[in-house]
Structures are given as C-alpha cells and as structure tokens.
Amino acid sequence: MSAILARLGRAVLEQLIRTGRATLFFFSLLGALSFMIRRPGLLVKQLYAVGVLSLPIILVSGLFVGMVLGLQGYANLVDFGATSSLGTVVALSLIRELGPVLTALLYAGRAGSALTAEIGLMKATEQLASMRMMAVDPFQRVLAPRFLAGCIAVPLLAGIFTAVGILGGYLVAVEQLGVDSGAFWSQMQAKVQLYADVINGVVIKSVVFGVVANWIALFEGYEAQPTSEGVSLATTRTVVYTALAVLALDFLLTALMFGAW
Amino acid sequence: MSATLTHSTAAAADRRPIVTVRGLTFHRGDHVIFQEIDLDIPRGQVTAIMGPSGTGKTTLLRLISGQVRPDAGRIEVDGICVHELGWRDLYQFRKRMAMLFQSGALFTDSNVFDNVAFPLREHTRLPECLLRTLVLMKLEAVGLRGARDLMPAELSGGMARRVALARAIALDPTLILYDEPFAGQDPISMGVLVKLIRTLNDALGLTSIIVSHDVKETAAIADYLYLISDGRIVDHGTPSALDRSNSPWVDQFMHARPDGPMSFHYPAPPYAADLLASPVP
Amino acid sequence: MVQKNLELAVGAFVALGIAAFFMLALQVSDLTSLGDERGYQVTARFENIGGLRVRAPVTMGGVRIGRVVGIDLDPQTYEAVVTLSLDPRFDQIPTDSSASILTSGLLGEQYIGLEPGGMDSYLTEGSTLRLTQSALVLEKLIGRMLTNAPGD
What we know:
The structure holds 3 protein chains of 3 kinds.
Chain A: H1 2-32, H2 35-38, H3 41-50, H4 55-77, H5 86-124, H6 127-133, H7 138-176, H8 181-191, H9 194-223, H10 228-257
Helix pairs in contact in A: 1-7, 3-7, 4-5, 4-7, 5-7, 5-8, 5-9, 5-10, 7-9, 9-10
Chain B: H1 2-11, E1 19-28, E2 31-41, E3 46-50, H2 57-64, E4 72-77, E5 80-81, H3 87-94, E6 97-100, H4 112-123, H5 128-141, H6 157-168, E7 175-179, H7 187-204, E8 207-212, H8 215-221, E9 224-229, E10 232-237, H9 239-243, H10 248-254, H11 271-276
Chain C: H1 2-28, E1 40-46, E2 57-60, E3 63-73, E4 80-86, E5 98-103, E6 110-115, E7 128-129, E8 131-133, H2 138-148
Parallel strand pairs in C: 1-7, 2-6, 5-8
Antiparallel strand pairs in C: 1-4, 2-3, 3-4, 5-6
C-alpha cells in the first residue's frame, strides 16, 4: 500500500517538475523572440516548413469536412423545410469549432510532430550543444523562429481551412443538392457575426491553439531523451498532448465566448 | 617531439597553464564522477586526457567549457573562473574556445560551406566575399575545399569530423577541446585526423585538449598525458615517461592488456552463487 | 534562387491566409453590421419580450434598419426596457411608430418589427417608442385558446 502511495507521490512530483520546466521553457521562448527582429530571414524558412507544407492536408481536409457538413446538415434540415439555413449551419460549425480545432489537430500531426523530431534529433546529435559551444543560443537561433512561425501559421491555416470548408459545403448544398445559392449566402450573412463568431471563433481560438501546439511540440523535442526511442516517444507525446490540450482548451474558450449567451 | 620544440619558444612567452583545475568534485546522482582532482593544461601544447570508457572524460570537457557546473572545486581558464560566469559572459568567453563533438555535430540542414560559415555569420558582419575567402581557407586547412557543396549526410565519418574541425577553428579560438576524435574511424582517416590535430595546434598556436581512449594514436601526438580512472587521476606525465611506468595500472592501460588491476568483469556477486541463486528478486 | 522560391511560397501562403480571412469577413459574415455602433439609440418598453436577445435585428417593412443593443428590466414598472440602435440613414421614422416583437417563421429567432406612424416629428437619439406590442408567448396563446374554446 505504502509502495503504491510512494509511487503515486513520485509520479505527481515528476508531473509538477515537468510542468515547471515547461513554464520556464515558455518564458525562455518569449524572451528569445526579440531576436527575431534582428534576423527575420530565419522566419521564412520555418514558415515554409510548418505553413506551406501543411497546406495540402489543410485544403483537402477542409474541403471534405465542409462537404460532409453540407450533406449531414441537408439531411437533417430537409425534414423541417429549412434547407435555406444550411449555409448558416455549415458556416457556424466551421467558424466556431471545426475550423480552429481540426486545424490544430492536423497541425499537431503534420508539423508539430516534425518539429519535435527535428529538435529531438538536433539534441541527440549534439547540434544544440555545439551551437552553445559556438556561443550561439539555440533558443534564439533554433527555437524562437520555429515558435513564431508556428504561431503565425496556425491562424492562417485555420482561416484557410474554414474558408475552404464553407466552399465545400457550398459545392454540396448548391451544386449537388439544389439549395438556392442566394439563400445559402444571405442566411449565412444574416446569422454569422464578425466579432462574435469570426473573431472569437477562428481568430482567437486558433491563436491560442497555435501557441499551445507549438509550445508542446518544441518542449517535447527539447526535453526528449537523446536516443531514437526517446525521440519517437516524444513525437507521440506531442500529438497526444496537443490533442488533449486543444480539446480541453476548446471547451474552456467556448464556455467563455459563447456560453454566456 | 620536434614540433613541440620548435613551437616552445613562442609558448615560452606565457608559461602559466591555460587551464587549472583544483579540487574538482562532480557527482551525477549518487555516482561520483570526479573526486577532488587537480590538473593543469599547459599553454600551446596538446594535452590528452585518457582513461577507460565511462570515466567521465567527456564530462571533464563539459566542465571546462562551462556546460555543466562542478559540485565543488574551481576551474579556471586563462584566469577566468568558468563556473562563476553569468550567461552573457559565458557566451562571450566561449567565443575563444571551440569544442569538437564526438559525432561532429554538423547542422544536417545546411551544406559544408554553410556549416563552416555558421559561427562567422553569427558573430561577425563580414561581407559575403570576405566570408567566402575565410571559409575556403578553413576548409583548405582540413583538405576539404572541394567538398564545400556536399550535405553532411553525404560525408564519411572522418570527413564530417574534419568539417567540424574547420568550423571549430573558424573564429580562431585559443583553446580547442576534442571529444573522442578518433572513435570509430578507419585507420586512414584516423591518421589524417592525428596529423591534422597536431599541425593545426602548432600552425595556429592553439592549445588542444584531447579526450580519448585510443592510446597509440593519442600518445603519438600528445605532449602530456593525464590518465584518469574511478574519478581520480591515476598518473600523468609525458607519453614516454608513462610508457615506462612501473605502475601496473598504467602498464595495463598503455599496453592494452586484458588482465591487470582493472578487471574485465563488471562488479558482481560470485559466479557460482549467482548461477545457483533463485531468479526471484 | 532557392531562397527566392522559398520566399515566394511563403508569400503565397500568407496571402492565401489573409484572403481566407477577408472571405470570412466579407462573404460569410455581414460586415455592414459594423455600422451599428454609430447608429442612434432609442428605447422601447414591453410587457414581455419573450425570447428576444441582444443583437436581434430591428426591421421596418421587412428591411433591417438596426439591432437590439440592450435589454433591461425597469425595477419600478416591471417592464422590459429594450434599447435599439438604428442606422442613421433612416432618420425620418415618425415618433408614433409602433414596435412589435415578431418571430421569423414558426421556430425562428425573434426580432423587432417597426410599423410607421403618421406624425411629423421623427425619432432621435434617446427617444422612446410609446406603442409596443409584446411577444406572443406560445404557451399563453395555447392556454387562451383552450380556455376560450368551450365558451365559443
């Protein structure tokens, strides 16, 4: 019994230590960000790696999610003769929830895991240590550009995902199922609000998710055991932790933004 | 060592050792890595620190370069106490030293040229044409000027280490630390590296510290040897002095004898008792 | 050259992202609703507002001319005080216009419909609409029908 308690206590302590390290890591990242003003060129390469290379999966997934929403929404609304509000249903579900959440989850799988593996391998092959020995701070030179690029890329990707999703819904609803095109857009415009939905939903949520997803990815890479198992374990942890954090935060943010009214 | 003799006139100007270590103690968990060791690294020479694997030789280099802090004792490099430096001063201090990592630690996402140019680009504002000249000079020094466009993945282990060496000398350091430079090399590239370390040391007026367990190669180029084992300095002296040492331990290590004071077996309970013991813990 | 291609790809990516947000702002949501903030505000008192919510549309003749910006309860009279923000383009609404709370469709959202009156004076900032008709609460309606049915 006492052995179990001791084990539990140790696990809790280890988690607390990890949380503390992650927090300090986050502040080091923020502190290193000012370096990006002097070296904006570093950002371009990283934006390409996490943004441009994530674009195909975001475009394809966004299109399909929007098309599914169009089909499912139609099947349900047609019973009430309310297919004209299909545009509203598609747009609101994408803007408030699916756009930012699915983008963050896809990002964790596509770019977050790659970031973790890259940093973990740089650590395992002593590249970070050799950088330190050359009097170059890896936080400034390696981690900060990746963090900033990721935080810029996620909101942009979420916007693209949402827009493509609405187009996918439009394709199914209007071209396929014969919903009136004017009703589709006008009903959407009547119900979707710029501040309450677009800014709160896509913008704020995706900025928060972007910061969290990149923080987790870089931290796991930086803390990875410098072995091949350590790095593979760390990439798995990145995807799992990001998914959990994004979904939990999504509930919190939704409760704060839309729950009050 | 004729090379040392010709060089010693220049080094004679400053006879103080470049690195002094006093009463250094370092633990990792409960495991004692170093127990109150003292050592001096003479300026302008090649000093080798040797010992069996797992005796913390690499840790010693990390201590000297300020990557880890000692539990007790004092490490001075050029009169500066390394472990008392703040973050900013430590980075300033490291511009004067270089470390060659065991793996080479080249940046895998850029080619040979950019790897060597990296420290120059980070710490200087040289125009691109001057930078190119400098990088090609450093690459020429290690004989790899023709490989400037290759990626690290296309290099052999020995070439990668030479590129890393070119990168290490890019900022003209006064002290260069080699972590197992000969490990896992074929005899030819080992010979190239051995010669390179010696010539660079003398041509650039560096001080070199080599950590290694390759006795023959290291003893061939070192001016002075330290042998460490079990957290202590077992013996030190010039290679020829150690070669003739009476100490059975030194004799075993220097001549690679399988038996001697250092046992082949990891500490274990008696063999027969262990075999007969029940497997339940 | 490689660096140029990289910059081109990143530039295209950022442009695409910004274009997506423009589409969300202009095509998906109604950007004209931004104008509400500059409208003039009038109040209307209702006995019962039913399911009316802040941001519900205010229409006249079916055309949207403003939004509900505030809902409060007068602690003395127990009436609901609804603040409407009206588009300044429509500044010639007679003061004796009446406001009713209507429902769009059978299950739709509730909104305020204005019926124009005949007076020569117009609503301005701070005016109050006197003639109001409360929301039709479905339960009350059904209850009235049930109690009245036998008497008919």
